[in-house]
Predict the 3D structure of the following.
Amino acid sequence: MQIKILKPLIFLSFFLIIFCQVFFLKNTFASDTEYSERKACFENFIRCELTRTSAKNFFNGKPFTISMVNFFDIKKEGDIIIMTGAVECWVSEEHQNLYVAVGVKKIFEKNKVSYLVIRKMNFSILATELMNFPYKERCDWSQYWIDID
């Protein structure tokens, strides 16, 4: 009698475990396309922000070239998506790194950069700290992503 009761419970438990794993894993991880889009937007946004006319000069007026933008991490805190990375630059034959945190918000179904921090030393940041560095849009976030599919 106990075996007849246990078989349906075991089957039901197994089914629920598989269903939950498939459902929750599908919804918690971004697709490759979404990751590629955010990475491309991050890299192009940083290049624009550092090289635009009247940009904040991190290199004391010395000429520089950006050799690489490295995308470190992405996390979501509340309604802000925080992306961090580093920019490798050559400044007058000298290698330097800048570390970046960008806070992106979705406004009317369009991603906009709301917060930006660029520093010469590596740092970690939370959304509450990032809010102290509002970004007045000079370089657009979404104009750089081209969907090739």
In short: Strands lie at 64-77, 80-91, 94-107, 110-119. Helices lie at 2-28, 32-51, 127-130. Residues 31-144 form a domain with the Nuclear Transport Factor 2; Chain: A, fold (CATH 3.10.450). The CA atoms of residues 24 and 46 lie 33 Å apart.
